[in-house]
Amino acid sequence: MAAPERAVIVGAGLAGLRGAEALREAGFSGPLTIVGAEPHLPYDRPPLSKHVLAGAIHPHATTLPHGLDADVDWQLGIPVAGLDRQAGTVRLADGRVLPYDRLLIATGTRARPWANPHEGRLSGVFTLRGRDDAAALRRALEAGPRRVLVIGGGFIGCEVASLCRSLGLPVTLVEPGPTPLARVLGRTIGAFIGAIHAGHGVDLRCGGEVEWLEGEGGRLVRAHCTDGSRIEADIAVIALGALRNTEWLDGAGLSADPGGVDCDAAGYVLDAEGHPDPQIAAAGDVARFPHPLYDGRRVALEHWSHAVAQAAHAGRLLAGAPPDAAYGALPTFWSTQGDLVVKSAGLTEGADAVAITQGDPASGRFIALYGRAGRCIAAVSVDSARWLPAHAELVASAAPFPPEGAAADRPKGVAVFDPGFS
């Protein structure tokens, strides 16, 4: 009697967990091992920069519920070190080797560290990616710092800055771009959101850059900017984006680089020659795949809903029950920044126009619809989530841009702007 096939999932985050559940639900009954670099069971990351930092919930409360049975072999607190596809094995950092017949790569991302390692190790310098990061930063905020410096004006940076203001802490946000969120939303919409944050007391320094961090006695005391200015602060949160965890795939003969691991339209991982490996799939932040809504352009998405949907797709695929269609769920995302809720549907990359189709940026509540080559490609709501589903339908159907007809609350029609990505 042949031994049952073995499945290994590398990555014990949201994508790894949902992939494991889908694998079981689709009928895979063989041995199942889940490997995770962190010592924790899978947990939810979005609350870390919100409720955990605010002290509203304990870090342990972020653990995700799941439907897996006790027969799952959890290998936690052990980073993965390599992949041998010829032998069908995954090598762990402690030297052990795990054989697999089906493999799901869900290693996700890690926070981009401060460029100078010595400065990055100063007491008071933090990144925010994992549960332990959030717990440590929460303790530092509770101590009542004189000022918090946030370096980077992306979603995490804006969330942390807003959280600090809600705690009554002075905060300075330094962003090299022209506005917060300019890389994701463009300068036009980024300027509106920046104005809202500034109105809440965030000291915004856009178009600037921190050159080095100064410490005294091993502790951060100030930051020096490229324009010669100094910012006195005893906490710095480095919010410069994420790095995909693909280094362990070096030498495995897969199409993988720092931008992600490539998959075909079905979800199988591609080898270095571009051929799918039917034993391996990928899901979540680390997976780069051709999205059918965007002319097959390869994208790697760091979205909660995407991790759930793609992992379920990959789990069914590896269980031998491939879905009827290629994975192509509409990307959705949300960010809570103080009392400001930003939600999106679709991808803004490549947009050549943007229109305010509901509300008014001056009021802090509006919908921005992005277009490319005369088609709707993304929609972003700012405290206007009830209008987003209808706009998401325009994006999913690649409806003409600008949309026909005027918004109900904009009787004079819809004005079209340059989104400001260049």
UniProtKB/TrEMBL annotation:
InterPro entries: FAD-oxidoreductase/Apoptosis, FAD/NAD-bd_sf, FAD/NAD-binding_dom, FAD/NAD-linked_Rdtase_dimer_sf, Reductase_C. Residues 7-311 form the FAD/NAD(P)-binding domain. Its cofactor is FAD. The keyword Flavoprotein applies. It comes from the Bacteria. GO terms for cellular component: cytoplasm. Keywords: FAD, Flavoprotein, Oxidoreductase. Pfam families: Pyr_redox_2, Reductase_C. Residues 333-407 form the Reductase C-terminal domain. GO terms for molecular function: oxidoreductase activity, acting on NAD(P)H. This is NADPH-dependent 2,4-dienoyl-CoA reductase, sulfur reductase.
